[in-house]
Amino acid sequence: MNWTRKDLLSLEELSKEEIELILQTADSFKEVSAREVKKVPALRGKTIANLFFEPSTRTRTSFEVAAKRLSADIINFSSSGSSTSKGESLTDTAKNIEAMNVDTIVMRHSSSGSAEYLARCVKAGVINAGDGIHEHPTQGLLDIFTMKEKKKSLEGLRVCLIGDILHSRVARSNIWGLKKLGAKITVCGPPTLIPAKIEELGVEVSYDLDKIIKDQDVLNILRIQLERQKGAFFPSIREYAAEYGISKERMKKAKKDVIIMHPGPINRGVELAAEVADGPQSVILDQVTNGVAVRMAVLFHTTMVERLV
Amino acid sequence: MNRLILDAPSMERSITRIAHEILEKNKGVEGLVLIGIQTRGVVLANRMEKAIGEIAKSKVPVGILDINLYRDDLTKVSEQPVIHKTEINFDLENKIAVLVDDVLYTGRTIRSALDALVDLGRPKRIELAVLIDRGHRELPIRADFVGKNIPTNENEIVHVHFIETDKKEEVIVSDKRGNDR
Question: B78 to chain A: nearest residue by CA?
Fold first, then answer.
């Protein structure tokens, strides 16, 4: 399996073999973060730019740590206080960054498809760190990596994505990636937050969490994006928590060895009770640790691809 | 055209002899660790560990080193290398680390391995054991323990096969253009 992409835009476009290559490389990179000297010279002399048009702490920091552990230089741009707030277009911003000979651009943007657009505009590699409600491929990969690490095999694994599927790029990346690796996916949430025709992606749909929770090996709980709930998709936060929140009570119905995942940041007491988030079945912090290894693997493979000049 | 350099029994004898030499030079197993370079160096290191164990009746830790991230041609190789795991689950501080690889050629792999190793700790001494030294060094590096020196042409390829990785046990030299199996 030879990696040939300069960009990582979605998990939809990746083959099973490409996903497995990233997971394998990430597995080897995990050891680097456990060393006393947490650095290898693999990307020495490469420059990576973090270009975040939406607020983010976790993902941006994770990419930054990943780049530094590979000895790349990383520059952070954020939309506030930059030329974007003066009205510069995305293309112009990116072209300017590229003119400084940056090798790879990591971008988060509120418009779906923006990463693909950028990849067509610039010769530098583009890594999608979340584009609108489309995809968040590195989150998908780190979720899959964590599931594989905890459950050994993904073939036939029952994974339930719970909550706001409609606005969730994490859900879409999970679905594309997990399907390719043979997992059985159920999406569960209020009907208003489940997109129409999602069954066509090959997932099961449920509106009743209590009915399906007992069969699941993995509960990947999505954040209720309070900033996107202006359309009144459910009556109240309290009602959502009662129907779809993972409480201590509800956990009694789940498998003993179920794992609890969450891409963060958690709304404690809404989609996930504090006791469960901090409980023994939670692998939420493992996801964060694995995120660095997965992003190292993604940066490594994409940046190493020879650029057409 | 394939030339047979070592058959299975000669490989075994070479490994046993190197094990004796390692023990002789280091006066026993005190502080000794073996570091196999992925992938065939790892097989060889495990064989040497077994041989040393039989001679000295004691165990020597074996670590695994992947040097790909330290290669000086990493950005130039056309096919991206597969990154394997590095697993050294012991402290290297003040140890005598014997790097183990199957073939010593340009010396660049060993240069990378030295860089990789010192990032992981500070051994008291680093030594090098190889099954085959085929010459054509591009860096000032030499092996402390050699199974067999063979004169080669730069157009030739040396294949070290182990049962564990290749289902057969032999060392052969083949022409670059010819088929190698």
Answer: A306
